[in-house]
Structure formats: C-alpha cells, structure tokens
Amino acid sequence: MIRKIAGSILAASALLAASAGVGEKVLPPPQKSGGMSLTEALSRRCSVRKFQKKELTIQQLADVLWSANGINRANGKRTAPSAMDRRDVMIFAALPDGVWFYDPEKHIKDNKLVKVSDSDVRKYCGKFEAPCYLILVPDRSRQPREVFAAVDTGYVSQNIYLAAQANGLGTCAMGSIVDKGKLIKELKLGKNVPFLVHPVGIPR
Ligand SMILES: Cc1cc2nc3c(=O)[nH]c(=O)nc-3n(C[C@H](O)[C@H](O)[C@H](O)COP(=O)(O)O)c2cc1C
User: 57: closest CA among 125, 131, 110, 134?
Assistant: First the structure.
C-alpha cells in the first residue's frame, strides 16, 4: 500500500516537472489561509540583513511573490494597489539558478515562473548574502510618473516585508543596489530601472 502511494506521488511529481517547459519552474498556488495574523506580522516586522544559506522552498517563494503583487480578484487586480490601476511593478526573483520573472497571470492560470536569465545576478543586487533577491522594477511605459512608480513600488515592498515575516523569513528593502547597469542588461530591462531590491531568506 505504502509503495503504491509512494509510486503515485513520484508519478505526480514527474508529471508536474514534465509540465514545466525549459526555462520554466512550476510555481504552486499561494497558500491563502492560516499563518500569522496581520497584527502579529506587523508587530514582528523589521529589516533583516543576515540570512542562513538554506534556499527558499518553492512554496515559500510562491507565497512571497503572490503576496507581493499577485492577483487576488477575478478582475485581475492585485494584492498591492497601484496609481490609476496601472499594475506597473514587475518582480524578478534572482536565485542561484538564474533570474525568474513573476507574471501574476501565469501564476494563477498556469502555475509557472518564467526564466529570463541563466546568470546568478544576486551579486549585482545587494551586499548581503541571501538565497534569493527580489528585484522590483516599475514598468515606466505603464506608469511614466516617477512619484507614482516609486509609491507603487513601496506598496509591493511592504507586502514583501509582511509576507516574509508571516512565512518565517526575513527581508530588507534596499535602495543601494550594487550594479543597476548589470541588472538592466542581464534582465533586458531597456529603459526601465530597478527601484528596490529585497534579499529574502531565513534569518540567521
Ligand atoms: C526605500 C528604502 C530604501 C532602503 N534602502 C536600504 C539599503 O540600501 N540598505 C539597507 O541596509 N537598508 C535599507 N533600507 C532599510 C532601512 O534602513 C530600514 O527600514 C530602517 O533602518 C528601519 O529599520 P526597520 O526596517 O528594521 O524598522 C531601506 C528602506 C527603505 C524603505
């Protein structure tokens, strides 16, 4: 019986892995219930700059990304507000195996995360060693006004703080980005510029 169950689990995970194309990761649906209360997360929120080497689980990554700026309503609106509903803030996850673009629609519809670079760009993000850096880039073709692009980025940043806290993780908003030029090139951002980066990991 146990062997049968183990067999089904193996088959299911193989199917899941096979359903993710080259350059794609399966991103599980976000966990939307349970966890820490908002007041507890707020009372514990702080900036964390030292992390364990342990990588995030794919569920932790899915939960933080969705909380940051995922779709939370049938009309496609997001967990973070945005001026004039421009939904301009793009999130890239810099992991040891490359850079992954978080497309909120792809998360909800296909459970996928899309690779945009094979390079480990964490060294271009911040000076703190972390298993993951989230890179926040407002798409200026969607929101040309700098003040709104900055405010929209701030809402996403605060969502990351609270989601990290609620998931037993730590993070820090960082405006001092080590090499914006390299990130722009590696992520093919064109005229867009990263506004903030967030190291994310288990606090040390
Ligand atoms: C827009 C913004 C940019 C920041 N940039 C940096 C940074 O480059 N490096 C850093 O170590 N902390 C940075 N921080 C974190 C602040 O230093 C931190 O929030 C502040 O010291 C208060 O500490 P707390 O977050 O633990 O309450 C930034 C915070 C914000 C909101």
Answer: 131
Domain ranges of the chain: 25-201
Q: How is domain 25-201 classified at the architecture level of CATH?
A: 3-Layer(aba) Sandwich (3.40)
The answer to whether 126 touches 176, Cβ cutoff 8 Å, is: yes
Q: pLDDT tens digits, residue range 145-198?
A: 999 999 999 999 999 999 999 999 999 999 999 999 999 999 999 999 999 999
Rounded to whole angstroms, the Cα distance separating 85 from 127 reads: 33
CB 41 within 8 A of CB 162: yes
Q: Distance of alpha carbon 34 from its chain centroid, rounded?
A: 20
Q: What residue's CA is closest to ligand 1, atom 13?
A: 174
44 lines ligand 1 (CB under 6 A): no
